[in-house]
Amino acid sequence: MGTQRRDPAERTTAAVELRGVSRTYGTRTARVRALDDVSVAFPAGSWTAVMGPSGSGKSTLLHCAAGLEPVGSGQVLIGGTDITSASDRDLTLLRRREIGFVFQSFNLIGALTAEQNVALSLKLGGRRAANGEVRAVLAGVGLGDRLRHRPRELSGGQQQRVAIARAMVTRPSVLFADEPTGALDSGSARTVLGLLREMVARAGQTIVMVTHDPAAAASADSVLFLSDGRIVDHARRPSAREVADRLARLEA
């Protein structure tokens, strides 16, 4: 039986919220406004894709929402807590306990096995893995037989699944994904996207994903489109063709 998607509009609690956020780079004579008064709420238990032309501000939005970059003005809230003026120490603790990250480049440690890479997230957060906890998470992403393999012994898709397991073992409130399928072949990309869908459907995970791939975006509950640092469109459950058409209009 297939899993029925719920409309994100039905969910009222925001896992992440940006209120009037602006972010500017550069000097006074060469300033670039990467985000321009952006207000958006990402509902708990939803999967949102963020798209836009190159330079539209989508990566900056992700980084500001995750507390990786400071905002110039406005507020960022995670789980209702304002992190805008949080100290570096508090932000580090927050990222270790409440936030998971998945990147295009996997960022696995080559000298460690898959099991050790996943366990490292718990150690950095000051936790010891419960008996079998790490193995259970890896089994959940289909890598129960790859525990002792190092990254060089795994395919790209398998490495990305290790990265997802590493992000999820801490049970974060929200998972930020930056082009998670960008370095994968189409088959591996479908596997990773299916895994993300299961996390939303079964565990109520919140995912905010930046992508350039219309097929990946169409896997999400909704898609935000950015242009020149502003949200200019929002589609719920679009097809890959609809996503591609909207993106093409922005790039024209």
UniProtKB/TrEMBL annotation:
Classification via InterPro entries: AAA+_ATPase, ABC_transporter-like_ATP-bd, ABC_transporter-like_CS, ABC_transpr_LolD-like, MacB-like_ATP-bd, P-loop_NTPase
Organism name: Amycolatopsis antarctica
Keywords: ATP-binding, Nucleotide-binding, Transport
Superkingdom per UniProt: Bacteria
UniProt name for this protein: ABC transporter
One Gene Ontology cellular component annotation held by this UniProt entry: plasma membrane
Molecular function, one GO term: transmembrane transporter activity
Coiled-coil ranges per UniProt: none
CDD domains: ABC_MJ0796_LolCDE_FtsE
Signal peptide interval: none
Family annotation (Pfam families): ABC_tran
Domain ABC transporter, first and last residues per copy: 16-252
